[in-house]
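Sat 14:20. Reprocessing the chain from the morning session after the first attempt stalled halfway. Input below, unchanged.
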Amino acid sequence: MDPRSIVLGFARRSDATTLALMARDLIEAGLGWEYRAERIARFIDDPESVALVARDAGDVIGFAVMRFGEERAHLALLAVSPTYQRRGIARRMLAWLLESVSVAGMSSIHVELRAGNTPARRLYRSVGFVETLRLPGYYRGRESALRMIRMLRTPGAVTASWLPPLIDKR
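Finished this time. Tokens:
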């Protein structure tokens, strides 16, 4: 795999089934199946959400779904196909999402992950997330979750409007 061949872009409605199957197999394994194609399609259509995909030669090999709120964003799903894991794809998707959150003026981005998912925990820590809470039985009463957060600015703070640089008229 050539990393340059991986292209990030918005999910299409026709991707919903593929993303749902990836969610079932890579995120929800052993917990039931909540993120079916219809639910994924609603995220894709929702103007308050972004569904990002990573493609290799047109095939979906990873995806992320994030919802935007007033002050914060929530990363609902993130997965990369096993044959493409540990190649920087999730990190690229996170960088894209973090930039989007920042441009949108959000104060923070939140995510929950299985408490035992050490690789995901390391990934999120490596891009500035910190653990804030352990949630026993979060996943259908069967598994604990960790809530992690990445702060981008102080909540409620007024962000300065962009102004063009001053022109020196000497």
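The helical segments are 16-27, 37-45, 89-103, 118-126.
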